[in-house]
Amino acid sequence: xxxxxxxxxxxxxxxxxxxxxxxxxxxxxxxxxxxxxxxxxxxxxxxxxxxxxxxxxxxxxxxxxxxxxxxxxxxxxxxxxxxxxxxxxxxxxxxxxxxxxxxxxxxxxxxxxxxxxxxxxxxxxxxxxxxxxxxxxxxxxxxxxxxxxxxxxxxxxxxxxxxxxxxxxxxxxxxxxxxxxxxxxxxxxxxxxxxxxxxxxxxxxxxxxxxxxxxxxxxxxxxxxxxxxxxxxxxxxxxxxxxxxxxxxxxxxxxxxxxxxxxxxxxxxxxxxxxxxxxxxxxxxxxxxxxxxxxxxxxxxxxxxxxxxxxxxxxxxxxxxxxxxxxxxxxxxxxxxxxxxxxxxxxxxxxxxxxxxxxxxxxxxxxxxxxxxxxxxxxxxxxxxxxxxxxxxxxxxxxxxxxxxxxxxxxxxxxxxxxxxxxxxxxxxxxxxxxxxxxxxxxxxxxxxxxxxxxxxxxxxxxxxxxxxxxxxxxxxxxxxxxxxxxxxxxxxxxxxxxxxxxxxxxxxxxxxxxxxxxxxxxxxxxxxxxxxxxxxxxxxxxxxxxxxxxxxxxxxxxxxxxxxxxxxxxxxxxxxxxxxxxxxxxxxxxxxxxxxxxxxxxxxxxxxxxxxxxxxxxxxxxxxxxxxxxxxxxxxxxxxxxxxxxxxxxxxxxxxxxxxxxxxxxxxxxxxxxxxxxxxxxxxxxxxxxxxxxxxxxxxxxxxxxxxxxxx
Amino acid sequence: xxxxxxxxxxxxxxxxxxxxxxxxxxxxxxxxxxxxxxxxxxxxxxxxxxxxxxxxxxxxxxxxxxxxxxxxxxxxxxxxxxxxxxxxxxxxxxxxxxxxxxx
Lengths: 713, 103
Prior knowledge:
The structure holds two protein chains of two kinds. In chain A, helix 3 (94-117) runs antiparallel to helix 10 (260-269), helix 3 (94-117) packs parallel to helix 14 and helix 15 (384-398) packs antiparallel against helix 17. Chain A has helices at 3-27, 35-59, 94-117, 124-143, 147-165, 172-203, 208-216, 225-242, 251-254, 260-269, 271-281, 288-309, 315-335, 339-366, 384-398, 404-423, 427-451, 458-463, 469-480, 498-503, 525-532, 537-550, 556-590, 595-601, 603-610, 615-689, 694-712; strands at 66-78, 82-92. Helix content of chain A is 73%, strand content 3%. Chain A has a two-stranded antiparallel ribbon with strand order 1-2. Chain B has one domain (6-91): Helix Hairpins (Orthogonal Bundle). The longest helix of chain B is centred in the C-terminal third of the chain and has 33 residues, at 58-90. Chain B has helices at residues 6-26, 30-55, 58-90. Chain B contains three helices and no strands. The chains are: A mainly alpha, B mainly alpha. Chain A binds chain B through residues 690-695, 698-699, 702, and chain B through 21, 24-26, 33, 95-96, 98-103.
């Protein structure tokens, strides 16, 4: 398999789901079995993606990315810009194939799961068609080698997300949620679009590689490092929207109105990870300030939803808040420079969170579409497979050793810890450990309330049953993938595992050294001095060049700090995870404290969390209220000023036309009528002459002759 | 007693023409109109003969008179046929009533 066949395989995988979508949406209503076509297509795509994964990682792991581009639009010579062409293209590197595998696998598992879960729905084939177009759009994001194509597919996943959240659009809450998701995403996408335009106006290209090369050559938007930072943050705005980061996180919990397998695919594993993927792609061009901003957003997004998840009672809402929190982890990891751990967490999280959602789908299916965990309890005996898988996922998300989640989460926490030690921003590490504690607590609260204890709703409990194999097998596959063995041989340290050390390599930063985090640079006093004397272009370029040659991304200092942070961070994260689980155990199994009394004691805090920090109320009153007020003002303006102008011009026209009508009626018509009357009278006079009597004529002739005789003689 | 000259002849023919014209214009019966026409023609004949005699060129005037007599005969034949057709169509020969041309 060479480079060309990789590109061809990528194109096949990309367009297969589109084919599935087209066929299923057009003929699915007539041929009921066509959903199987879509399922078959995604299976083929999965097969190809696994093949690509193995070949790329086994033979080409150190090779440069495979790229293929073609000219899409040739604008020729544009004034002020010069020659402008727009290329589309495909890039395949290790990140791509890993993400491709994750998307295809989860998409396929969700397809299989949905066959059973959605059985009997009246829009069955349409559901599969939507899954097809979602997979197509997501793969477009994965394969793209430029920002424009990224943006196009970015909007396409937004569209498919909108369609799938509002799949049961007869429910008002579902259609509202789909609109909320769409509009909230637009806000982030606006920033992303601005960033893309800023980049295009500076570099005249959308291609990542070309952009990075020009930044490395010292060219910056508007010739200032500040604008490079701003561009990075603007592009990251797209990620804030799509990955449901603070402050645009409000759409994701509402998105749970969609079918549960969709939540697993789109709102847990793949689409929301697209924001992280975007940040990963633009990572080399992010400046230190931009990274700090990203880390702050990530930390806030990790902490706030974790506190909200503590008190929620809807099983899917808990998982949704947990998703935001984990995405916040990834974003924070990227922000503190832990590129490989951030992306690693994306992969591990995709598997166990998709598993959690599918597991909750299994529970909901068994409980006949009951989502409130207060109605559940004791389901362990009824749903043994689901329970076992659920526990594995929860251990993974809580970061207990021997699971995949431990590896990635520990890596992130260690990086944050080391980052705090190097830069003084210790808040990220503290947030990370606190969130780990909360995560363990709320996940095991969910398990204990749902699967343990006494059944709270005996009727529903009696009718509950384990799901069929089509639903449990995906759960088992995902549970297996949540085990450490797929990622590293050493269950306690991912840093030396094959996933991280040989597959996910932090790309060298291309921004000037003065704009990076200090620890990312080698300690070179000369460079520091030169940069102080405002003559930095030459040495910096050399410095960057040197780094590239040696493939050193982080300085010795950082490597050392990370190494020394590893064991304390691991111990601490293990401690908080166990503490969280133990607390949940005490609260919900042993019931050492009376929960109601405890809640009563911390009522304000409890309500604050239960009402989701009043974000929805705040947005409703401030932004929605502002928009409403604005629209009222505009309405008044429209009704009184604009309409007034229109009405005034109308009445002026009326007056003029009345006047003109009078002229027409009395003067023009008068003349015409007068002429007509004149002619008529003349006619009346003349017709008297024509009697028709031959003798009269004769008299006239004679008379005329006499007259003529008198005249001529 | 005055000798009969050219003036007498012309007076006779003028009277005859006037009577004929009067008949053509005033009579209601179509036959009477035709008779008026004959009078006019004969007045013209008298004029021809008179001028031929007093002018010295007798032959040409008499030939013209004879020609007019023949013409008058043909004319009255055609005119009577027309009158018959009129009678067939209108059931009368009163020229005052026959004013269909007006419409």
